[in-house]
Amino acid sequence: MVRLLKKKSFLIVLVSLILIVIMGITSTRSSKLGWFGNLLNSVVSPVQKALSSSGHKVDSTVSFFKDSKAINDENEKLKQRVDQLEKENDSLKELKTKNDLLIEALDLKNQLKQFDYISANIIAKDPGNWFNVFTIDKGSNDKIDKDYAVVASKGLVGRVMVAGPFSSKVISVIDIDSTVSGRLTKTRDYVEIKGDLSLRDQGLCKMYNISPDVDVAVGDKVETSGIGGIFPKGIAIGEVTEIRQINNELDRYAIVKPVVDFRRLEDVFVLKSKN
Amino acid sequence: MRSKIFVLISSVLLIILLQTTLLEYIKFNSIKPNLLLVFIVSVALLRGNIEGAVTGFFAGLMQDIVSGKVIGFYALLGMYLGIAIGSVNKRLYRDNFFVALVFSFVASIVYESVVYFFGVFLKGQTDFIYSFTNIILPEAVYNMAATVIIFFIVMKIDDRIKKSNKSSRKY
Do the domain assignments include residue A39? Predict the structure, then answer.
């Protein structure tokens, strides 16, 4: 036995077998080996936090000088926009009071009021170029657990994939492993939102399973449907930018532009249900 | 021996920290180089297949833990990469920059193609041409540029270790 262990090729085969078994164990959803990764991540995450925040500072100082002209132009535009929005706001306030009355009348509950918002910073990204998984600086110590929904101020970001004590990993909706059940806000039809490798670089994702009788148009809004139990109902996902047909009506998909800009994402919120 | 392990662990930790944080800011066309792969190639070229395999295994394991989908995949891949490159190095001039560049280019293409096959292709994203021209090839070129720096550093550390081995043998 000892002599066998000293042989190189035997060792390689043994290590390979062990690793394949570990891969099998960890690929199931309820693996018990999470503590092993958590151990290292707890050590690494404070350093990652420091490094990314310093990197971000340098980046923002550089862009501060680069962008000052653009900012002036933008300022002008924004002033005009403020005027315009104030006007719109007045009319919307009117609508809101009307809407509140109607909602009360219908006794609809706002689903998202049942959630606590835990704010978190992104401290690290995936080491490779294939996946869009990132690490946030809150974990199970802040009562975050697997499969909690993650949102930004505008809409859906993704869900918690692994939760360690001080950090957790979030898989974003544009990752190729992510599938979100959504629905069209206008027609209330169910669809499926998936990440796609070729669209990911532009920050887009694909919309599948559009049944042939559904009337989809460019500019339609998509939100979460609440099916599956991970994502609460009614979080904005994005907007349809293009509809592509492969052969016929049955065989079509749409391209969705998420409301969240994944390239500039830094702060997110984890949704934790109150009960 | 002990100092060698210390150097290995600390450099892998340093690289994984850089890889996940600051490298985001030097992305070119949303592609970043894979410093761990370059490190494995450099160590395997300079130190042979056993140390290459150990480095590959350890660096891969770190990447598994940090990227968090399945534990063991990158470790296995890294180990095989270290063995493969470490086994060819006997027949070549090992501290030649040009050899290191060619090896890191070829290794990047093979390694990322395997990652593509298991991590992407099997999940239904079958457009290999797109992945090859937009991710694998640019990353391989970027890795070659990173090789210049990392191979140089690994070579310096390698010289140090060799020197200290000689002086400790004298007594």
Answer: no
Structural domain that includes position A87: 67-106
Number of domains present in the structure of chain A: 2
The CATH number of whichever domain residue B142 belongs to comes to 1.10.1760
Cβ of B16 within 8 Å of Cβ of A201? The answer is no
Question: Would the pLDDT of A92 be above 50?
Answer: yes
A-B Cβ pairs (cutoff 8 Å, strict): 124
Q: What is the mean pLDDT of residues B36-47?
A: 88
How many domains is chain B built from? 1
Per-residue pLDDT reduced to its tens digit, B100-130: 888 889 999 999 898 888 887 877 777 788 8
Residue B171 lies in a domain: no
CB-nearest partner of B72 from A26, A48, A135: A26
Q: Could you please report the per-residue DSSP string of chain A?
A: -HHHHH-HHHHHHHHHHHHHHHHHHHHSTT-STHHHHHHHHHHHHHHHHHHHHHHHHHHHHHHHHHTHHHHHHHHHHHHHHHHHHHHHHHHHHHHHHHHHHHHHHHT---GGGGEEEEEEEEEEE-SSSS--EEEES--GGGT--TT-EEE-SSSEEEEEEEE-SS-EEEEETTSTT-EEEEEETTT--EEEEE--HHHHTTT-EEEE---TT----TT-EEEE--TTSSSPTT-EEEEEEEEEESSSTTSEEEEEEESS-GGG--EEEEEEE--
B164 occurs within a structural domain: no
The answer to whether residue A139 sits within a structural domain is: no
Domain contains A265: no
Tell me: ipTM over 0.85: no
CB contact under 8 A, A55 and B21: yes
